[in-house]
Specification:
- The protein has about 100 residues and is an alpha+beta fold.
- About 45% of the residues lie in helices and about 25% in strands.
- The chain has 3 helices and 5 strands; from the N terminus they run ααβββββα.
- It has a 3-stranded antiparallel sheet with strand order 1-2-5. Strands 3-4 form a two-stranded antiparallel ribbon.
- A hairpin with a 6-residue loop joins strand 3 (about 60-65) and strand 4.
- Helix 1 crosses helix 2 (about 20-40).
- The mean pLDDT is about 95.
């Protein structure tokens, strides 16, 4: 398996839609910007059949420095997370299972 980059996505979408790569890159960047902006405002972003981007609150806690074994205070904060939709999870699992059995 390898990593698919934003450039790879732009090329693939451009080839399937007939848009230029420049126009497709603008659309992809605006989409990602809209998702980030919604999360920054505290909103969830749900794309049916794909998944949901949301903000997860992390509580303050005491952790341990592995080098010194001393306790370290970790402040509370927010973290963006992605939860895959059931359909996406099933599709990925089915595809990977097919690859394993072939």
């Amino acid at each position: 398996m390898s990593t698919v980059t934003k450039k790879d996505l732009v090329e693939k979408v451009a080839s399937r839609t007939g848009l230029t790569q420049v126009d497709t890159k603008i659309v992809v960047e605006r989409f990602l910007g809209a998702v980030a902006n919604a999360l920054e405002q505290g909103n969830n972003v749900e794309i049916r059949g794909f998944g949901r981007f949301k903000i997860k609150e992390r509580k303050a806690r005491i952790a341990r420095n592995p080098r010194t074994n001393e306790p370290v205070e970790v402040k509370s904060g927010s973290k963006p997370v992605f939860e895959a939709a059931r359909e996406l999870t099933k599709s990925v699992n089915d595809s990977l299972q097919r690859d394993i059995t072939q």
